[in-house]
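> @MW can you paste both from yesterday?
MW: sure, first one:
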Amino acid sequence: MSCKCIIVDDEPPAIKVLENYISTIVQLELLATCKNAFEALDVLSSQRPDLVFMDIQMPKLMGTELLKTLPYPPKVIFTTAHKDFAIEAFELDAVDYLLKPISFERFLKAVNKVLQVNYPLPETRNFGISFVYFRSDRKMMKVFIDEILYIESIRDYLIIHLEGNRELRVKLSLNQVIEMLPEIKFLRIHRSYIISIDKITAFTKTDVEIGRIELPIGKSYCSSFSKLVPTNANLPNGVEERE
């Protein structure tokens, strides 16, 4: 069962950020985006979403005022650049109050307040997704899951290494990214590396090879890696175990 949601915001960049975040959460289904409260009223009456990501300061009718007009309001997460409306928002029983710019970690924390109770995670995280969006160079970049080789953490940034000698630089943590990716396809092997399981070409007890690239396996990650390839008989096709 999915949680149907809409975005109500008059700022296109803010909408893009939320669309990207929502696309990474398998339980969320985005029904529509609305540029003002009046568009939202039509969608709320016709599609009846479970959750609304609502800006507060919008033309003609504010988000808090819109919420007050609804006899049976859905769950609401306010998204705003202003701190001044927090008390009013929680008086209206808002799930959460997110200040722009909104980090993925903070977004996920707010959404989990809804999902953990009413929309539990499936057994496999993000199973079946074929792509995700990442913000890079002020753009939302579409990245296909099968093109990712490995992800490298460098200080405050990540480098997503892609097929064809391509790279994407994003400002996220490895913990944030691993939640966005299908757990059956990706594995964290080090405090600085996430690898695509399908792209492993060889390995030992201490390192993994992806093509010509050799990556270390951290001591605290050896157990999870050994569960992936516990014996020579269980090796994925085309993978070589080196002595």
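MW: second:
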Amino acid sequence: MTNLFDLSGRTAVITGGTGVLGSAMALGLARVGANIVVIGRKQAAGETVVKSIEAIGGKARFVSADVLDAEQLTKARKEILDAFGKIDILINAAGGNMPGAIITPDQKFFDLNIDEFDRVVDLNLKGTVLPTKILTQDMASRGKGVIINIASMASIKPITRVVGYSAAKAAVDNFTKWLAVEMARKYGEGIRVNAIAPGFFITEQNRALLTNTDGSYTARGEQAIRQTPFARFGVADELIGTLVWLCADASTFVTGVTIPVDGGFSAFFGV
């Protein structure tokens, strides 16, 4: 019987692949046979991810590009196609937040820095749309491919304080559904578009918000734990099973959905 979770010979491109979650995804897909292309702006960090994949016998390459720069992404596409011949999977893992797009407890909505709000929306939404527009043209021409966006619990319900991030990630969820229909109707069932919505995972961007220097939880971290039935933060590797399933032939009739990986956070509305 064919292994429904085998990705051998497929090329997976991961934007934001140098981050905590993105690098775990890169390694996880390499373990099931995919060739990996890490797209990011940090050469040294990218090469570290490539070496970790090569250390387990995988094939990987770092390509420098900003997800908000069409010219750089176009050059990246050529480099990837020259090296691997095709792009089978695109993981849009680039994203993040900025202090000015957050409303702290001692601020009001009217204190919002609209310039940083714009930058957060650009990074998370345009930083998903633009790479998809440029890097999936090969998929469209072949009528086959997988696009995975990284949404958030903020896609499902607004998270206090992070107004820019919540708005952008809600839009990513909407874009996922829209693009799934667009691709299926115009290029056939061979192109699937889905998203993963991580719950609370500690990354370099949110570490100071959720934990103190001694490793204990901040008030914000404790609140997140209280609202997560598993009563803990997620570990990056816990995204891999869902990611592999969505990328592989095991999910050929699945498109236009956002899958929570959240320890029950999205199901909990109690006190």
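> thanks! The longest strand covers residues 191-198.
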